[in-house]
Amino acid sequence: MLRYMGLKLKLHPQVYEPVEDSFLLAENLKVRKGDFALDMGTGTGIIALLMARKAEFVVGADINPIAVELARENARLNGIENVEFLVSDLFENIDGKFDLITFNAPYLPGEPEEPIDMALLGGQSGREVLNRFLEEVGDYLKPRGRLQIVQSSITGVHETLKKLENMGFKAEVTAKKHMFFEDIVLIQAQAR
Ligand SMILES: C[S@@+](CC[C@H](N)C(=O)[O-])C[C@H]1O[C@@H](n2cnc3c(N)ncnc32)[C@H](O)[C@@H]1O
User: Fold this and answer.
1) Closest CA relative to residue 65, chosen from 25, 7, 12
2) Is the pLDDT reported for residue 15 higher than 90?
């Protein structure tokens, strides 16, 4: 069991255990009262459950069904009801538009073999999942909607910023944490 910012979170060997990248996002969440928020790649549900304290309603999505079950259990454990978790490959099963979308994305190069690998491996170049996310996210944000992405310096922060600018977003790095061989970077963007 992990305790963080007043949340109790059950863990599972096949679900990403929140660490520094999760905490960087958690400490800098730009959720506002009344927001409809989406947490992509929710894992234990940590980010979705923190956002639910202020947001009107939060949807947490993950491609890993074990993560979705665990996140539902963590919502029950903390008595949080304004949240829904569902299995989805990115936006496959997502409807509607959101004020805020968060994604602590998998970023290491490699093809996943078991569920837990999907937390870290983002395809052959490491950017496949993030690039697919960036291509689709614009359709799920309200006008002036906000986006918060965590990624590693290993997989091209500049490339993400450039893609977002090209999509019409104002994008910037708003926080950073140095880890052993990389910087973990929080990118914030807003539709213009
Ligand atoms: C680095 S973990 C982050 C987990 C959690 N948000 C946190 O901060 O602790 C990335 C998550 O993205 C999920 N994921 C990977 N590919 C995905 C996809 N195509 N669609 C939805 N979720 C995906 C993984 O299963 C994993 O739970």
Assistant:
1) 12
2) yes
